[in-house]
Amino acid sequence: MNYFITAIDTDSGKTLASAIITEALQADYWKPIQAGKPTDSDMVKSLINPELTIHKEAYLLKKPASPHHAADVENIKINLDDIELPQTTNKLVIEGAGGMLVPINDHDVVIDMATKYNCKVILVSNLYLGSINHTLLTLEALERRGLMPVGIIFNGDTNPSSEEIILKKFNIPVLLHIKKEVKITPELVKRYATVLKKRWNELDL
Which residue range is the domain that position 189 belongs to? Predict the structure, then answer.
């Protein structure tokens, strides 16, 4: 099974959430398109079980920008058809780049990879002023594509009012709440992974 991790914005916490999910499922991890360094693959590698597999990026771009622009700077054209799924018999956690509609070329957007690889989608929503609108817009766009998330991860200080209205509009389960942590360590990831694994089993995902 493949799981695609997307978010409502660029800095929503996808990489930390991906590390936690990868650890919880003892899965492989893959970031198909990386723009800028340090890479998210390196961060995930530093936080999870060292025996788990991190697959190489299909495109590793230098400029920290939208993939379509970062690729243009290097005279590269990202072709979705050329991005081959890594060979593995394990579960695979695939991390997107930025929000779901971030362009990767003139025609395709990040979330198109979830469709191509037949992924279950997990949405990361960080809580800030305006995040209700951004989360609902993202959920509507996913629903239109037939990619309704199997669950949502809230990231940041708890905001019951924001969370409740989002969940009233879209009846999806909350997989995890990630607090605003001062320091991210493998031990922290493992603690969250334990909580997530229990919830995962409850929902029979």
Answer: 2-203
